[in-house]
Design brief:
This is Aminotransferase. Keywords: Aminotransferase, Pyridoxal phosphate, Transferase. Its cofactor is pyridoxal 5'-phosphate. With 381 residues, the protein is α/β, with parallel strands linked by helices. The chain has 2 domains: 121 residues, Alpha-Beta Complex (Aspartate Aminotransferase, domain 1), CATH 3.90.1150.10; 238 residues, 3-Layer(aba) Sandwich (Aspartate Aminotransferase, domain 2), CATH 3.40.640.10. Helix content is 41%, strand content 16%. It has 13 helices and 14 strands. The strands form 3 sheets. An 8-stranded mixed beta sheet has the order 2-9-8-7-6-3-4-5, with helices on both faces. A hairpin with a 7-residue loop joins strand 10 and strand 11. Helix 2 packs antiparallel against helix 10, helix 3 runs parallel beside helix 10 and helix 4 crosses helix 9. The longest helix has 24 residues. The N and C termini lie far apart (50 Å). Bound molecules: glutamine (GLN).
């Protein structure tokens, strides 16, 4: 028979969520909050369903949401964005990533990826015919080696795909790192696809700085956000891309052949959400920060070596020397089956030759759920 392509693997999130269900485990694996986002946003979505229209919205997105995205760029980052030509709405950041990659990457183009990397990057770049060039940040600080960064650029480099703040490392790239990355992109005439879905999940009052706001980057950056993260509504899959008009144009061409549109009521509700006042955004990061501390302290008390976490809703721990198993995969399997706690092996975020000493806990869960996970781990250890 004619062979099908077998190069795509089951994502680790699906694998771990299935195992969590099968073993009735506390699910700290796949990243999603266990309480839905703001009720007023959900009510707005419900109204949109009833009032309609429920037909195909404009291909680029509902005007109210495109306007809200442009406004948010100005409000949070001082970026001037024309809502009509520089914003496009997608079905989640995942579609946004695919659209950007389909728009920019041609067979043979090199795409710079920073490991650990979010799991859809590699398959998307590869299926587009791109050549991934992987560069690592190393724990515990996940620092970027600037010499290695400079050496990773070549005449074939078409784009760099940056996830900042970074999943699973919970790292916020430093000003120095971003400055150098921007300088190299300008020097080598390279585009940046910036996955910034965790832009509002930064702790200790830290402020997210989009690579797009660095000198020379405004016209070579596609900046991606997600309502799933910003409003704790991961199932909605509403994403948005901001970029120069001449980049949004080819991205829109890709989008029209991937999904064409995104549900109009959800777009309308997210537009409403983006207009929320500062107190919402402060609450979001403060609430997650306290959960981070609860989980980190619980894990430290159990003897885990918890790595720094400056953003996102993930904590990484170094399990080396604990005698829990040979590899992160084995430890995660034991944890879900024996302890009843689902986590994610960090080796899943590498394209090969991965370190095997790190596992990821998702902490955007109710406090009693985090306590239950800690209690189960205490019994098991
Ligand atoms: N981004 C989520 C995580 O890192 C998972 C999303 C998904 O399942 N595709 O856990």
């Amino acid at each position: 028979t004619n062979p099908v392509f077998t190069g795509l693997e089951t994502t680790i999130f699906e694998t771990m969520s299935r195992l969590a269900m099968a073993h009735d485990a506390v699910n700290l694996g796949q990243g999603f909050p266990d309480v839905d986002g703001p009720e007023d946003i959900r009510q707005e979505a419900a109204r949109g369903l009833i009032d309609g229209p429920n037909q195909y919205p404009p291909m680029l997105g509902v005007p109210a949401l495109r306007q809200a995205v442009a406004k948010a760029n100005k409000r949070f980052y001082g970026l001037d964005v024309d809502w009509q030509s520089q914003v496009i709405i997608t079905s989640g950041a995942t579609e946004a990533l695919a659209d950007c990659i389909f728009a920019l990457v041609e067979p043979g183009d090199e795409v710079l990826l920073i490991e650990p990397l979010y799991d859809c990057y590699l398959p998307m770049v590869q299926r587009a015919g791109g050549v991934p060039v992987r560069l690592r940040v190393t724990p515990p600080e996940w620092a970027l080696d600037l010499d290695a960064l400079a050496a990773a650029f070549s005449p074939k480099t078409k784009a760099v795909l940056l996830n900042n703040p970074m999943n699973p490392a919970a790292k916020v790239f430093t000003d120095e790192e971003l400055t150098e990355l921007a300088r190299l992109c300008v020097q080598h005439d390279v585009y940046a696809i910036c996955d910034e879905v965790y832009e509002h999940l930064v702790f200790e009052g830290g402020k997210h700085r989009p690579l797009m706001s660095y000198p020379g980057m405004e016209n070579r950056t596609l900046r991606i956000g997600s309502a799933g993260k910003t409003f704790s509504l991961t199932g909605w899959k509403v994403g948005y891309i901001t970029g120069a008009a001449n980049l949004i144009e080819p991205v829109a061409k890709a989008h029209q052949f991937v999904t064409f549109t995104t549900p109009p009521n959800l777009q309308r509700a997210v537009a409403f959400g983006l207009g929320k006042d500062d107190s919402y955004y402060h609450w979001l990061s403060a609430d997650l920060q306290s959960k981070r501390d609860r989980m980190a302290n619980g894990l430290k008390d159990l003897g885990f070596n918890v790595l720094p976490c400056d953003a996102t809703y993930f904590l990484t721990v170094d399990i080396s020397g604990m005698g829990l198993g040979e590899t992160d995969v084995e430890v995660c399997q034991r944890l879900v089956k024996e302890a009843g706690v689902a986590t994610v092996p960090v080796s899943a975020f590498y394209g090969g030759d991965a370190p095997v000493d790190y596992i990821r806990f998702c902490f955007c869960k109710q406090d009693h759920v985090l306590e239950e996970a800690i209690a189960r781990l205490a019994v098991w250890l």
